[in-house]
Write a structure and sequence with these properties.
RcpC_dom, alpha+beta, 6 helices, Pilus_assmbl_Flp-typ_CpaB, SAF, Flp pilus assembly protein CpaB
Amino acid sequence: MNNRRSLMLAAILFVGAIAAGYWGLVISRQQPIAEVPVTQVVEQGVATVEDQTRHPVVVLVRDVPPHVALTADDVTLEKLRTAPAGSLTAIDQAVGRTPWRALTAGTWVSEQSFEVGGPLSRMIRPDERALAVAIDEVSGAGGQLTPGDYVDILLFLRQDAANPQQSAQVVLPAVRVLSVGEELGLTSDGQLARQPLNAEEALKQAQSRAAARTAVLAVPEPLLNQLMLATQAGTLRLAVRSAQEQRLSKYWAGEKEAPTNLENAKRSLYQFNQLAMASPPKVPVASTASGITRERGIEIIRGNQAAQQPAQ
């Protein structure tokens, strides 16, 4: 009797298991499981990792005129692989602040965006002045002069009535080149004085550098007047110094050597009449046998021949 009941119970359970399995199969067919492509999972993982390595940077979304406070609509937050030095990292750091110069769309915003002064004024130290000099392909180191180079300024003086002997000398050594034509160098803190151009404009600027007619130099303020006199006295040329001279930035700004270099430059500038603003040398007076004095004539030298021209 017990065996018969056990067989009947087993048969019922077996039929129930078959029914449950069939019912589960029907449900699984009605609600298919969505398959996620493996490539999509990988891409999402890579994007997450890259997002964690990028840095937020505040960037302008449109041109901003000077002296107008920034609004939230002017800026956006972008994530860059490398954040520019000094760039702002939150929109609230820029909103409400007023730039002193025009800023173009796509420019990343930094503290320098709100500093007073143009590019040149941010490229020189407080004891320097930016002075432009005329150059050509010869005087400008064969058209290869580049902002950031250090140059010696050479002066050539022709022989004339005020300068009895033609001569040449180094007027100022180790002077930093700030710009050549329209191409600017770096500011005093190592940042670009002007935001990077697009590739086409940068190429045009590099091509026009060789044809530049002006170069702006960082001149120590005590020597500014002397250099101005030199530009009017004779012909100037720029001699580029080696990049291996690592301490040229301290030539005029160093605490130990700068005072000595400054005094040496002052003394060397005054050895010519034009730079010293002195009167021409007096013509020597000779005495005749009768005791009457007369002025000596002017000696004129042509090649290996010399002749005396009577004084007027």
